[in-house]
Amino acid sequence: MERVLVLNGPNLGRLGVREPEIYGSASMADLRESATTWGSALDLAVDVRQTDDESELVGWLHEAVDARAHVVLNPAAFTHYSYAVRDAAAQVTTSGLLLVEVHLSNPAAREAFRSHSVVGAVATGTVAGFGFDSYRLALEAVAARLRGTRA
């Protein structure tokens, strides 16, 4: 079973109470349960984590490289400016692992500053705008790539 780290950046620990009109009413605990279930059905061992700390997120990306784990990453606000997260994400993909950038909302349809991702250019792909289904679609894409098919 392939391992996938589902990593979430700042403020996503507030899912369910933070701007539910944008991010929905489900919580991080709900995401953890859903992603684990989806992963299991796809023969993926999923580990869901969330941090508000940029250095912790970078450390988890390093861990993914060292452990040979694929990554589904919602960098949240770090998407737009964190070159530290971008460089750590690049290490994932240049080591031959998959990294799918995920967003609950569609950043391109929101404030102008959200339209640029420093992570997107080093990601295997990006899924955005489908709420929690963005994570399901990302996990399905990882599983398809690992099977040698296209998602």
Automatic annotation (TrEMBL):
Pathway: Metabolic intermediate biosynthesis; chorismate biosynthesis; chorismate from D-erythrose 4-phosphate and phosphoenolpyruvate: step 3/7
Function: Catalyzes a trans-dehydration via an enolate intermediate.
Keyword Amino-acid biosynthesis annotated: yes
Enzyme class, broadest EC rank: lyase
Self-association state and partner proteins as the record states: Homododecamer.
Recorded name of the encoding gene: aroQ
Keyword Lipoprotein appears in the UniProt entry: no
Protein family (similarity comment): Belongs to the type-II 3-dehydroquinase family.
Catalysed reactions, semicolon-separated: 3-dehydroquinate = 3-dehydroshikimate + H2O
Protein's UniProt name: 3-dehydroquinate dehydratase
Molecular functions (GO terms): 3-dehydroquinate dehydratase activity
Pfam family, one: DHquinase_II
EC number per UniProt: 4.2.1.10
Record-annotated site: Transition state stabilizer: 18
Lineage of producing organism: Bacteria, Bacillati, Actinomycetota, Actinomycetes, Micrococcales
PROSITE patterns: DEHYDROQUINASE_II
Positions of substrate binding: 74, 80, 87, 104-105, 114
UniProt signal peptide: none
Domain of life: Bacteria
SUPFAM superfamilies attached to this UniProt entry: Type II 3-dehydroquinate dehydratase (SSF52304)
Active site, per annotation: 23, 103
Gene Ontology biological-process annotations: amino acid biosynthetic process; aromatic amino acid family biosynthetic process; chorismate biosynthetic process; quinate catabolic process
Keyword list, A-Z: Amino-acid biosynthesis, Aromatic amino acid biosynthesis, Lyase
PANTHER family: CATABOLIC 3-DEHYDROQUINASE (PTHR21272:SF3)
Source organism: Cellulosimicrobium funkei
